[in-house]
């Protein structure tokens, strides 16, 4: 099965090892993985900021780069949602590009959803041992239905103990440009998320969107916690410790 990885700009710039972990997982599932080298941003920040022209330009660029691939997988529910659900809206006034956007959308998946429901991976390369609490990212949960999938994958690692936090489905305060426009509100929401996560006394806070994880980890460290790990689920599923 031929799969293209959309790395996401945050992963590329801030934590590339998530991209490599995603490749390892896809290959463990028997996929032939390619990573288009000209890929950049999916255009979500432009779209959320009201710059429709820039969002359309980036959408067309990505479609050209990925439409020949069998499946497109992203280690981010937010980016996968933007490509799958927003591209047809952004390009609705252009019949040719709208059709291409719709065709691509049907083959776009978030990583854990693809591993669970498409390739149905059974054996994972990770050997993580410890307790975990899982944060459900807003867009992945509400727009992509990502809830059971990451927990099912974590359940395949015998060394993992899942400790659910209060408010696991509540926002972490990131929200992309929201955290920039409404910094004080974002910080308060992040503090509540971190408090709930720390109450579980889990070794690691885990999620599926790096934006959320960066926001959580930043607040956690400012609160004085230097020991709790903050990890993307792909890192956990491929951990060698």
What this model shows, in words?
The protein is α/β, with parallel strands linked by helices and 241 residues long. It folds into 2 domains: 2-118; 130-237, Rossmann fold (3-Layer(aba) Sandwich). It contains 13 helices and 8 strands. Strands 2-1-3-4 form a 4-stranded parallel beta sheet, with helices on both faces. It has a 4-stranded parallel beta sheet with strand order 6-5-7-8, with helices on both faces. Strand 7, helix 12 and strand 8 (229-232) form a beta-alpha-beta unit.
Secondary structure tally: strands: 8
First-to-last CA distance? 29 Å
Give the radius of gyration.
18 Å
Helix percent band:
40-55%
Choose one word for the global shape: globular
Briefly characterize the structure.
With 241 residues, this protein is an alpha/beta fold. 51% of the residues lie in helices and 12% in strands.
Main attributes?
241 residues; alpha/beta; 2 domains; four-stranded parallel beta sheet; globular
Topology:
Blueprint: E1 2-5, H1 9-14, H2 17-28, E2 32-34, H3 44-48, H4 52-66, E3 71-74, H5 77-90, H6 95-105, E4 108-110, H7 111-118, E5 130-134, H8 138-144, H9 148-154, E6 160-162, H10 178-181, H11 183-199, E7 204-207, H12 210-222, E8 229-232, H13 233-237
Parallel strand pairs: 1-2, 1-3, 3-4, 5-6, 5-7, 7-8
